[in-house]
Write a structure and sequence with these properties.
The protein is α/β, with parallel strands linked by helices. It is 40% helix and 20% strand. A six-stranded mixed sheet has the order 7-6-8-9-10-12, sandwiched between helices. A four-stranded parallel sheet has the order 2-1-3-4, with helices on both faces. Strands 5-11 form a two-stranded parallel ribbon. Helix 1 packs across helix 8 and helix 4 runs parallel beside helix 5. It is elongated, with a radius of gyration of 19 Å. Bound molecules: 1-methylethyl 1-thio-beta-D-galactopyranoside (IPT).
Length: 267
C-alpha cells in the first residue's frame, strides 16, 4: 500500500514538517509514502510527478503545491484515475482539500498589534504566485483597511530567511517609519530579525515582528517569535485520514483554524 506526496521544496521548513508528519501517519495506517518534490516549471512537472507515481501503482496522492483553484481543478480533471487531496489551495476551492483558514490567524495578528498601539505597518508577504501568501496578505490588508490604515510598505519575499533579511534591509533604507512588521512566514521572520539586530534596532522595543507558521524552531529565535500557528502535524494527520477514508463522500474537505501564539517579538 503506497500513497504519493507531491511537494514543493523540502528546503522550506513547513513543507518538510508536513512531509515528515505525512510519513508518520501513513506508516501508522500501514502505508508507505513515495515523495516527489518539484520546484519550478510547476504545471508540467506536477503532471510528470503524478504520472511517475501512477506508474508505481499509486492511487492516492497528497499535493502540497500552492495552486490557484482553476489549476487545481484542471489537475483533478486530468487525473480522474487517482484520488488527489490538496494542501495548499484556497479552502473554498471545489477540489478535495485540507487547508488552513487563511483569514483568522492573519486577522488575529493585525488586531493584536493594533491593540498594542501600532499604526505604522510594514508587510512582508510570501511569493506573488503562492495562493496562501496572497490570501494572508489580503486579510492583513483588509483588517488594516477596516481601521483606515494603509501599510507603510508591502514587499514580497520568496519564503526564505535570505529574502527576509534583504527585504528588511530594503524597508530600513526606504521606509524606516514602521513600528511593526507582519511577516508571511517564520523563515523570512528569521532573516528580518537578523537584519534588525545587525542595524541595532531593538526587537520588540523599537520594532515588533509577528511571523506565520510556528514551525518547530520558531520558539527558539531571539527573541522567541510571536507568530500565527499552523498545526502542520494535524493538517498532515487529517490529510492522511481523509485520503484513506473508506467513503470519501463522508469525509469532505476540511478547513483548519490558525491561531496567534504570543511570545516575545512584539510589544
Ligand atoms: C506554507 C508555509 O506557511 C510557508 O512558510 C511556505 O513554507 C509555504 O508553505 C511553501 O509553499 S504552508 C502550506 C501548507 C500552505
Amino acid at each position: 500500500f503506497t500513497i504519493g506526496l507531491v511537494t514543493t521544496s523540502l528546503a522550506l521548513h513547513a513543507p518538510s514538517q508536513i512531509a515528515a508528519s505525512v510519513k508518520k501517519y501513513a506508516h501508522q495506517a500501514g502505508y508507505q509514502v513515495l515523495i516527489s518534490m518539484i520546484d519550478e516549471d510547476v504545471n508540467q512537472s506536477i503532471q510528470d510527478s503524478i504520472n511517475e507515481l501512477k506508474s508505481q501503482r499509486v492511487e492516492k496522492v497528497i499535493i502540497n503545491i500552492p495552486l490557484e483553484s482553476a489549476e487545481a481543478e484542471r489537475i483533478y480533471e486530468n487525473n480522474r484515475d487517482v484520488l488527489c487531496l490538496f494542501l495548499d489551495v484556497d479552502p473554498t476551492s471545489p477540489v478535495f482539500n485540507v487547508c488552513f483558514n487563511p483569514a483568522d490567524g492573519s486577522r488575529a495578528s493585525v488586531e493584536y498589534l493594533l491593540n498594542l498601539g501600532h499604526r505604522e505597518f510594514a508587510l512582508l508577504a510570501g511569493p506573488v504566485d503562492s495562493v496562501s501568501s496572497r490570501l494572508r496578505l489580503q486579510s492583513w490588508q483588509e483588517t488594516l483597511a477596516e481601521k483606515g490604515i494603509a501599510p507603510v510598505t508591502v514587499i514580497h519575499g520568496d519564503w526564505s530567511a535570505k529574502s527576509g533579511y534583504y527585504s528588511a534591509l530594503q524597508m530600513l533604507r526606504e521606509t524606516p517609519q514602521f513600528t511593526a512588521i507582519l511577516v508571511g512566514n517564520d523563515q523570512m521572520a528569521l532573516g528580518v530579525i537578523s537584519a534588525l539586530h545587525q542595524h541595532n534596532v531593538a526587537i520588540p522595543q523599537q520594532v515588533s515582528i509577528v511571523g506565520y507558521d510556528d514551525t518547530y524552531d520558531s520558539a527558539f529565535f531571539h527573541p522567541a517569535l510571536t507568530t500565527v500557528s499552523l498545526d502542520l502535524d494535524l493538517q498532515s494527520k487529517e490529510a492522511v485520514e481523509h485520503l484513506l477514508a473508506e467513503d470519501n463522500d463522508a469525509m469532505p474537505s476540511k478547513v483548519l483554524p490558525a491561531r496567534l501564539v504570543v511570545r516575545n517579538s512584539a510589544s
